[in-house]
Amino acid sequence: MKVPVTVTVNGQVYQREVEPRLLLVHFIREVLGLTGTHVGCDTSQCGACVVLMDGKAVKSCTVFAVQADGAQITTIEGLARNGQLHPLQEGFWEMHGLQCGFCTPGMILAAYDLLQRNPNPTDEEIRHALEGNYCRCTGYHNIVRAVRYAAEKLRVQA
Amino acid sequence: MYPASFNYYRAMTLQEALNLLRQHPEAKVLAGGHSLIPLMKLRLANPPALVDIGRIAELKGIRRADGTVVIGALTTHREVEFSEELKQWCPLLPEVAAHIGDPPVRNMGTIGGSLAHADPAADYPAAMLALGATMKAVGPGGERMIAADEFFLGMLTTALQPGEILTEVHVPVLGKGTGWAYEKFPHPASRYAVVGVAVVVRVENGICREARIGITGAAPRAFRATNVEQALAGKRLDEATVRAATENMVSPEGLLSDPFASAAYRAHLCAVLTRRALLRAAERAG
Ligand SMILES: Cc1cc2nc3c(=O)[nH]c(=O)nc-3n(C[C@H](O)[C@H](O)[C@H](O)COP(=O)(O)OP(=O)(O)OC[C@H]3O[C@@H](n4cnc5c(N)ncnc54)[C@H](O)[C@@H]3O)c2cc1C
Ligand code: FES
Ligand code: FES
User: Does B214 fall in a domain?
Assistant: First the structure.
């Protein structure tokens, strides 16, 4: 069985026929070729695969592409505007919020979800919001700094 | 990892979902997918068909009908966590929801899915028992109401019948003089409850009129600590009374045991978390 889906990813509309068992992360990576979204654990734990679905952070390794039919998806590729990094991306750069970078796309999109809800989070709130995102390199400290940097910058811009 | 192939059917109304389940009796319901998809990826579940109920508008939302709060089965953990209405009407539930998994999990997982799945380490079942909630199920034989005390039958087993869909959860509005609390010892890796204790107490002039205690994670199914509930009725909820009532409250026999937490350790956690939850609830009851 193949099912038609229409998914808007980073503002661009894609129509494809997919097997119902195709996971959203494979749809994004393999069908659309957007490899910024990573597969880490593949067991819903690590958050490397986090994307925004209708504005909310979800683990795309645990969502079927058919569930995203009609949805708006944002991946890491969709954050920069006109060659200008998003404040979260800039924050990870400036604060050394990454080493190998494997967790970074998921971290940034989970943090994006937080900052939409809470533009001025405490360090503790940042840590709680990123509970579902594992980093094996940084020790998290600079990730918290990066999110704080972005929060400040976004507040100034607003 | 990818699941075995299956056929996919999407229902836009409850009636459509019931019809699809009748036409495909071997099908499973898909709500948020955050229990089912991991099982399918591990091939521990291989349903030949899924009926996706995730878009059924009539199964969404939170409303109040007199002294009862009605929560649609598709209400996500995140919606419960941030619901201003629930914070006023039944604040135990937002407190519990905030403990489930992590934010992306809470964005997808639903209250109906969690209750229907009845994972022994899930958080909501404890709250349903403490609140005296009622589940509404609709199936081929019509609709029926199932009390929380009769809902959780065993490991991953509920009173729901094949072809039935859980549509609503009914919980009482918590009035003045009522205190509540949820205490959880999360597994450090999975965040599921090693033990979770939900408590609702009704206090009048400093005296406990009613205590309801739901415990999850400890046993194959969530259960009520009726011995402690009875021991506290008519008493003042001070530290000494609560301590006496909770000491050795659960026997390790029949409790879950794994490399992380033995049955004896779980029994100990039951007592400690019940004590903490009761004291916090008593303070809130005023
Ligand atoms: C990484 C991770 C961590 C988690 N941590 C926790 C935690 O700490 N605490 C916790 O409680 N849970 C936890 N969960 C589970 C999560 O809460 C799930 O969302 C929930 O258990 C299932 O809800 P769902 O909507 O995703 O259901 P699904 O996965 O879609 O369905 C689960 C089962 O219920 C059935 N079903 C679903 N809805 C209905 C309905 N309305 N009527 C009848 N049958 C139905 C399905 O057929 C299936 O058998 C975690 C999950 C993950 C992936
Ligand atoms: S790859 Fe999805 S959570 Fe780890
Ligand atoms: S930077 Fe390497 S996993 Fe986070």
Answer: yes
